[in-house]
Amino acid sequence: MINFQYARAGDAADAVQQIAADPRAKFIAGGTNLIDLMKEEVERPTRLIDITRLPLRSVEETAEGGVRIGALVPNSDLAYHPLIERRYPILASAILAGASAQLRNMASTGGNLLQRTRCYYFYDTATPCNKREPGSGCSALTGLNRMHAILGTSEACIATHPSDMCVALAALDATVHVVGPVGARTIAFSDFHRLPGDTPQRDTNLEPHELVTAVELPARGFAVNYTYLKIRDRLSYAFALVSVAAALELDGNRIGEARLALGGVAHKPWRDLAAEAALRGQPTTEATFAQAADLVLRDAKGFEHNAFKIDLARCAIIRALTQAAAGTPQSQSDKKIR
Ligand SMILES: Cc1cc2nc3c(=O)[nH]c(=O)nc-3n(C[C@H](O)[C@H](O)[C@H](O)COP(=O)(O)OP(=O)(O)OC[C@H]3O[C@@H](n4cnc5c(N)ncnc54)[C@H](O)[C@@H]3O)c2cc1C
Ligand code: SF4
């Protein structure tokens, strides 16, 4: 473990001021990702700015009919919050599909957005990795790439974003509130995470000195016809090979509104507006869902060990949409575990 300084932030302005004063400082919230990365010497901050005492732990209804979630709301509190369970159950399902009960108790909303990829080579400092060390190469391109991306990849990086919660937030069209040295701003969820391009070291469009303060959900919650389907190697405590957040509003057996986002397949939660448009106005049939799946996967590209993900994603999209249409969400098997 490297040596580092520790400081506690008094309020959001103080947190931003402290991080702006030290380019190698990092915020720490639950620490469930950052501390692991520090132990592996992937992250080497000179200073940790503890933000856990900031007043960012509330879940409140907004004047626009949506919900504002403080950046420090623990993942478990969010999943079991009555407003989320009742109005945004797809978000509760996605959170409960991730990690373990203990980790969800520690993990924060802001930290979940900013968790880093689980690419094995990113964690292994003995191997080249453009995300960890820009310009060193990508070991996954010709190495073990079973967990890796099939959409939006670049020659520099084929990593995936590991979050489950973020897939639901993408489908729900959330907004991220941030504050930095020049003030506060909002970032549409679809613009928050980045594709790797030739700068895979940047996961998000958050500026280095900005603090995430909240995530806001719009009023539309898709509380009746939704599914978060996570396909993984083990039934719990494993990252997604492919996951699908599917949310529909139905008018009889026709689709009024549709949302479709995938996890485990790209460097960011993958939402496809063309596929959603193709679903609107269509009957809730397998043919409709298969057409949407083909649209999502039209540019999918597999590598040596992960080409199976293309078929897997196709089946998962069809199954998730079928379950959403039938109003039978994926089982929330660990819902009772707190
Ligand atoms: C064994 C294991 C299994 C897991 N399985 C899953 C899974 O299946 N699905 C899943 O989705 N996740 C999974 N996770 C990841 C877990 O959800 C994340 O580690 C967690 O959400 C990170 O939140 P945190 O508060 O602990 O972040 P931290 O570790 O404290 O921080 C992570 C990063 O975010 C930054 N940060 C934190 N808060 C803010 C803020 N407000 N503003 C700006 N920057 C901030 C930190 O500087 C750091 O860079 C797993 C983790 C582990 C260890
Ligand atoms: S896929 Fe990305 S994170 Fe993994 S080795 Fe390549 S550059 Fe690094």
Describe what you observe in this structure.
Strand 2 (25-28), helix 2 and strand 3 (47-50) form a beta-alpha-beta unit. This protein is of the alpha+beta class and 338 residues long. It is globular and about 60 Å long. 29% of the residues lie in helices and 20% in strands. The strands form three sheets. A five-stranded antiparallel beta sheet has the order 4-5-8-6-7. A four-stranded antiparallel beta sheet has the order 9-10-11-12, with helices on both faces. It has helices at residues 12-20, 34-39, 75-79, 82-87, 89-96, 101-106, 109-114, 120-123, 165-171, 189-192, 273-279, 286-296, 308-326; strands spanning 5-8, 25-28, 47-50, 59-61, 67-70, 175-180, 183-188, 211-217, 225-231, 242-251, 254-263, 270-271. The longest helix has 19 residues, at 308-326. Iron/sulfur cluster (SF4) binds at residues 117, 119, 121-122, 129-131, 138-140, 157-159, 200.
- Which structural class do you get from the secondary structure elements? alpha+beta
The portion of residues assigned to helices is 25-40%
Question: How widely separated are the two ends?
Answer: 31 Å
Ligand list: flavin-adenine dinucleotide, iron/sulfur cluster
Beta-strand content estimate: 15-25%
Number of DSSP E strands: 12
Radius of gyration: 19 Å
**What order do the SSEs take from the amino end to the carboxyl end, as H and E?**
EHEHEEEHHHHHHHEEHEEEEEHHH
Major beta sheet, specifics? 5 strands, antiparallel
Low-confidence spans: 332-338
The number of distinct helices, counting runs of at least 4 residues, comes to 13
Q: What is the spatial order of strands in the main beta sheet?
A: 4-5-8-6-7
Q: What global shape is seen?
A: globular
